Every structure is written in C-alpha cells, then in structure tokens.
Amino acid sequence: MCFDPRYPAPVLAPDLVSKVLAHAVATGADHAELFVEDRDSTGLKLEDRRVEDVASGRDRGAGVRVIAGDKVAYAYTNVLTEASLIEAAAAARAGLSTSGSTPVTDLREVRPAISHPVTRPPLEVDMADKVLAIQAADDAARSAGAEIRQVVASYMDVRQKILIANTEGLFVADDRTRVRFAVQVVAGRDDRIATGFEAPGHSGGFELLDERPPAELGSKAAAKALTMLDARPAPAGEFPVVLAPGTGGVLIHEACGHGLEADTLVKEASVYASRAGERFGTEDVTIVD
Which residues of 141-166 are buried (b: 16+ CB within 10 A; e: fewer)? Predict the structure, then answer.
C-alpha cells in the first residue's frame, strides 16, 4: 500500500492496522473497525484583564469495534503500541460469542474529498502571541466607553490527526486543524445590562486572526453590547416560529429520531418497533431516514 508523499503520514502504519483488524475478527465476526486519534490542543481565557486559564495537552488513543449479528463490542486503549492495540482488539472480540475466522480485505487508502489548508500552524505560534491576541481584544473592547463593565476573551486551537480503517478494506486518514476566538462584552447603564458577542472560527490555522484581527472583534462585541443598552424589550406572547432546516432536524431527531434508528428497531428496544406501516403524528410532517 503506497501513500501520496504530499500528505502527512498516517497515525499508524497500514501493516499494523491490518494486524489489529485481523485480531479483532480472529474468532469470527461480521465486521471490525479501528478508530485512532492523536490530538493536540491549547486554550486561553482572559477575564478582568487577567489571563485566568491556560491549558494545553495531548490526547492519543484508539478504539476497536467488532460487530457480530446485532451485537456490538467495543474496547479502547490510550497507548498506541502494537501490544496495546492487539490487546484492545482481543478484548473487543472477547465480548462476542463467535466462532471461525473472518478475512480482512486488503486496505485501500481513501483521501477525504475536502481539505482545509493551514497557513500558520498553531503549534508553531508562540504562546506569548496567543496571549497578546486576547489582550488586544480586551483593550479594544474597553476603549469603547465607560459603560463597558466586563470583557471575557478566549482562544482555542486544536490539531486532530485521525485514522479510520475496517475489515472491508477502508483506510482513511485526516489531519484537521481548527481555531476559534471569542469575545464577550458586558455593558451597563443604571440598572440595565446588555451583552455583545463575537466568536469567529474556522478549519484552518492561526491565520484566522490575520483575517479577523482580535482588536476588531473586541470593538465589534463592545459595539453590540452598547447598542443593546438602547434596545426595546422583545414582546411577549405566542408568535409563529420559522426554524432553519438544521434546527428543525435536531428537534425531530431528539424527539423521535433515536427511536427510529435501525439497530434499536431490530432489537425491539423502541416504542416504534411493532408499528411498521402505521401513521402517527400530523400528516404535515414527513421524516425520512
């Protein structure tokens, strides 16, 4: 299996991945999959002109899922050595009563259809520069006027390298970097309090703050808070509500979507399990899985 040298090497070598999958189905199963993650993150928070929280860390681990019929077993490890990965595969396999063996299809690399290039990798940016960014937002927000009572600025970056492979031959790796910057400003006048908020983020690197300067974000959040001090209260009562498709989808999913999931129905663990073909609810709503 050859890899395109233009892309970063995967978290685990393909031969090790194949070996782990083979162990997962060594006593027979319908399917096994491996998920591996290597994640670096940094977070900063400034409040009352002080940097209150600074956190950085690295998380690494892998999970093995094995499926046999309608039963699923899962095991994980936070040590990415061959011995630990094979132990996790054996633990997942042991959770199922299976016999025989299942072949593992030769792995075929699949590249994600979408890529998000990184111009300034956050890991290469000094922590001092990240502190200066949240301080610039704080200074700009406070300079908007005496009615600014509080400013909270925060910065977060994550680099996440993942790998997904299964016994059907899928092998896909991705390298994701995300950055988010947030400024919350509280303004007050007499007994009135109002809040302004700006929180851009993107799949990319520290160049986000070149495109959206922290001082500009602090000024915009402060302007929103000051404007809201003069806003009229929203009227009370019943009104028509229009939901965006995404929001409506979340409501439907939480209300009844979980009960309509196929694995729940197969196990007859849902109140809808015996109601195939029935209509319930209003005819104005159609739900399609």
Answer: bbebeebbebbbbbbbbbbebbbbbb
Model confidence band, residue 1 (pLDDT cutoffs 50, 70, 90) = low
Q: Is the pLDDT of residue 6 over 60?
A: no
Question: What pLDDT, on the 0 to 100 scale, is given for residue 28?
Answer: 87
Position 99 scores a pLDDT of 80
Does pTM surpass 0.90? no
The full length of the chain comes to 289
DSSP assignment of 230-248, as one string?
TPPPPPPS-------HHHH
Distance CA(182)–CA(83), nearest Å, equals 42
Q: According to the 3-state scheme, what is the secondary structure of 104-126? A: CCCCEEECCCCCCCCCCCHHHCC
Burial (Cβ within 10 Å: 0-12, 13-18, ≥19) of residue 268:
exposed
For residue 201, what are the contacts with CB-CB under 8 A and spacing of at least 6? 178, 179, 180, 181, 208
**Two tokens at 86?**
């094979």
Q: How far is CA 183 from the centre of its chain?
A: 21
Residue written as token pair 């001090």: 229
Burial 230-252 (b: 16+ CB within 10 A, else e): eeeeeeeeeeeeeeeeeeeeeee
pLDDT band at 78, cuts 50/70/90? very high
Output the pLDDT for position 33. 97
Kindly provide the residue ranges of all beta strands, DSSP E only, lying in the chain, ordered along the sequence. 31-47, 50-68, 71-77, 108-110, 148-166, 170-189, 192-198, 201-203
**Which pLDDT score, from 0 to 100, does residue 113 have?**
84
